């Protein structure tokens, strides 16, 4: 899974925060400050669907898009993909563990112990 580009992130921010599936028009309207072209957003959503980041369902004449993964699941998958690029996963994990805050370390310990997700 690849990291998202700037416009892809903006589009996904709309998708992730929407309470219901969104159309291309919904995304364009919510990104009005960026002034993206309708066709540009349509292309971005089509590519995101091809990458498996969003799912889409035809409702009437318009596609409705939903996130295939939560933002947290997506970022976790990116982290795992990056971890797969190293020759020493253990050393990389040690460097990562030493770089996180005390609260983040507690969260990791709870997760490793199988405790419920706090969020």
From TrEMBL:
Any GO BP annotation: negative regulation of DNA-templated transcription
Entry-linked InterPro entries: BlaI_family, WH-like_DNA-bd_sf, WH_DNA-bd_sf
UniProt name for this protein: Penicillinase repressor
Organism phylogeny: Bacteria, Bacillati, Actinomycetota, Actinomycetes, Micromonosporales
Keywords, alphabetical: DNA-binding, Transcription, Transcription regulation
Family classification: Belongs to the BlaI transcriptional regulatory family.
Keyword DNA-binding among UniProt keywords: yes
GO molecular function annotations of the record: DNA binding
Domain of life, source organism: Bacteria
């Amino acid at each position: 899974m690849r990291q998202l580009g700037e416009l892809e992130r903006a589009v996904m921010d709309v998708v992730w925060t929407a309470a219901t599936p969104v159309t291309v028009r919904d995304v364009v309207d919510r990104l009005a400050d960026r002034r993206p072209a309708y066709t540009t957003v349509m292309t971005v959503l089509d590519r995101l669907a091809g990458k498996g980041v969003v799912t889409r369902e035809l409702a009437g004449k318009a596609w409705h898009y939903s996130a295939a993964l939560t933002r947290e699941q997506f970022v976790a998958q990116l982290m795992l993909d990056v971890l797969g690029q190293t020759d020493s996963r253990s050393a990389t994990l040690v460097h990562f563990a030493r770089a996180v805050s005390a609260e983040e370390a507690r969260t990791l310990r709870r997760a490793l112990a199988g405790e419920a997700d706090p969020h």
